[in-house]
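Dear colleague,

Following up on yesterday's call, I've attached the two folding results inline so they're easy to grep. Please treat them as preliminary; we haven't cross-checked anything against experimental data yet. The first protein's sequence and structure tokens come first.
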Amino acid sequence: MRGHGRASSTLLLLIMILFFSFLALTCAPYNHGLLSTIPKMHGDEALMLPALSIFGSGFSEASILLNQTTRMDIYSFVINNPGIHFRALANSLSMPIGVLQYHLGLLVNGGLLSTYRDGRYKRYFESKRFTETEMKVISALRNGTSGKILVALFEKPQMTHRDLASKLNISSQALSWQMRRLEKMGFIKRKIVGFNVKYSLDETICTTVSQCNMLLNSAAGAGFEPANLGSWLFN
């Protein structure tokens, strides 16, 4: 009887907490204009997410967050395309911006996805899968000209400024800007030999570039061919 009483009290407490959590979510002040741009929270989300912070040991936050088709699609796509940025993700999934922002926010706040700021891009990764260096390298590999530079220098360990600019079909000034950026990131080393400037990958980053390049090629369903990366990579 005593045990039954304690169980009843616990159940009653849980019901009350869920009830007041629901009231707080539905009665709090809100902006009508903002709500029209994001999807409405499902009933199970409104009730279960507040309870997770109180009864965390009895629930799996990941299972709650991924128990929704749109979020599962986003999560799976990021896992299979590490380092993809927001706009490319929206285009790939043909998803409205507001819907994508809402669900990405839940996945990031829930600890399932992490972000890396790459200049004007915010890139998304599976949480706890990559080191910061790996996220930097993947972001650089996906970032147009800088990615092509890393691939070229991985294929040929040392290249002159002139040869590299010719290979990439860009101006000397544009290459200089890119190389300064990559040097600051610790990716590139320069060496002056006579009247020539020669570039190479920093030896501490070579293995990471190789592994990340292989990962991205694998994700695209291609073999490890650094010189033949398709345009899919650079987004």
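Below is the second protein, in the same order (sequence, then structure):
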Amino acid sequence: MVFEILSLGVCVGFVVLVVILLALFYIVSLFNGLISLRNNIDKALANIDVLLKQRTDLIPNLVETVKGYMKYERATLENITRLRTSMMNANTLGEKATASQAISAGLKSIFAVAENYPDLKASSNFLDLQKQLSAVENQIADRREFYNDSVLLYNTKIKSIPDMFVASVLGMKDKEYFKASEDDKKAVKVDMSADAVPEAKTDGGVNVSKAAKTKPWRKKITKTRKRKAKE
């Protein structure tokens, strides 16, 4: 009788030990899974930062290359330079996302205006920079999508049972998406209107933007043409 009681006690103890070990293993698995997701998010964000810096470093070269051709597109070049400064001064993730979107729009504007300058389109330096920036833009888009997908999975996990209990103990909070918030959009104002980013137009054989026609040098151009006509 005593032997049977001892055997039963050993069996129960063994079962309890197995259950405890399985529970610990499951908790550790949840912990490792959440940590892995968080590390993937940090890694993805670091990759985005590298690409953002790479694009930022290419912008001055682009401006120097095109300004010799786009003499009357000063507003366009000033806009992309200002946006580059905003990108460099961005601190929060939302500010970075807003500045990044604005720079993408600014670069598209420059490439669109460049269509009106055949000499610029034929420049090897411009074509090389355009190719590099386009490649970086595509990589940023891919990394941004991967980052946001990782954040979505992580935020869902820490709010789901049983992961939420482990996340609560570890103090894990929701991660921010890489996208512009309304407040951040107000912080970085982007004016891509026709007046702010003019399209090149032809006036008497000379490329003159809409903005240029309202500037003092417009009068100089007109006077020069009149003088040449008299000659």
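For the second protein, one point worth flagging: The CA atoms of residues 225 and 231 lie 10 Å apart.

Best wishes,
A.L.
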